[in-house]
Amino acid sequence: MTQQNIIVKKYNHNYAVHIVKMWRDSKEHAIGQKETHSFENHVYFLNHILLESFEVDIALIDEKVVGMIAYNEREVSQLYIHRDYQGIGIGQLLLDIVKVHSSGRLRLKTFEVNEKAQRFYEKNGFKVIGRGNENEENLPDIQYEWVSE
């Protein structure tokens, strides 16, 4: 599968249920912890809270949601790839789009247990700038920053 098969488009409410299913499954697989919020609350969060501060792009293959990224010019809030489609360039494609639309500096957090994400971000020029665990999962996290050259 190549990036030609991947279509990236702006978020549309018609994809909400599919995005949240993929997001929850991907996150649970990455951190080994079930989502604490109900499915309905997660959809509400996507449609009403996340969209207040962030753009959301989705990646589709044959109209199937295979990835999503929520971002603004300074921050990546969420980046999730369907676990059956990881490692084929979807995350790279989404992150490259966000870098182009950034202020030249992006910050994000990932969980310490998500070593795959750490390798991905570090490969993409992100540097560790802090550590903590200020998240509802109560897991240690790593703060990263990318600065355009």
TrEMBL record:
InterPro entries named in the record: Acyl_CoA_acyltransferase, GNAT_dom, MshD_Acetyltransferase
Ranges where the N-acetyltransferase domain occurs: 6-149
Listed SUPFAM superfamilies: Acyl-CoA N-acyltransferases (Nat)
Domain of life according to the entry: Bacteria
GO molecular function annotations of the record: acyltransferase activity, transferring groups other than amino-acyl groups
Pfam families in alphabetical order: Acetyltransf_10
CDD domains from the UniProt entry: NAT_SF
UniProt name for this protein: N-acetyltransferase domain-containing protein
Organism: Gottfriedia solisilvae
